[in-house]
């Protein structure tokens, strides 16, 4: 348990931006978020995640209620990655090297992965992944989407792609 002091007081110039941010990061770490005078800051109510790149993303079409496993690397260490799964957003930090895969049960037919994803692996999900759209991540350098139920794959926007594995699909 720790304390985090992002604002001097309620009149701080950054107060509006902070109050629109997502407090889940501090809550999950059991941090107390306080003004500089050590009084509590009211719970924030926004979904803004500091450091997140929202114009760079990968979309997956998935079967609802199924287990999915994905893995990725980022352009730089400690990059913020947001996985949108219907009403359930998960924010993780990614590094330049492969970490443990992220696993979750889907609650929406579309999953979106936002952020500076450089390498992406969604292989071996069987019939649980039915489509993938990587066109909005033009920085993608490697993609392994093998062993899924993909009917098509368009990587024409991904000019930096150096490694592609897409066998064992319906392509």
Give structural attributes.
five-stranded antiparallel beta sheet, 2 helices, 38% strand
Order of helices and strands: EHHEEEEEEEEEEE
Instruction: Based on Cα principal axes, name the global outline.
Output: elongated
Largest sheet: 5 strands, antiparallel
Radius of gyration: 18 Å
Task: Walk across the major sheet and give the strand order.
Answer: 6-5-8-3-10
Alpha carbon gap, first and last residue: 50 Å
Rounded mean pLDDT is: 84
E-strand count:
12
* Class of secondary structure makeup: mainly beta
Query: Percent range for helical residues?
Result: under 10%
Tell me what you see in this structure.
The protein is mainly beta and 171 residues long. It is built from two helices and twelve strands. The chain has helices at residues 15-19, 24-28, and strands at residues 2-7, 31-35, 57-62, 67-74, 79-85, 88-94, 102-105, 110-115, 117-121, 129-133, 142-144, 163-165. The strands form three sheets. It has a five-stranded antiparallel beta sheet, with no helix packed on it. Strands 7-4-9-11-12 form a five-stranded mixed beta sheet, with no helix packed on it. The longest helix is centred in the first third of the chain and has 5 residues, at 15-19. It is elongated and about 60 Å long.
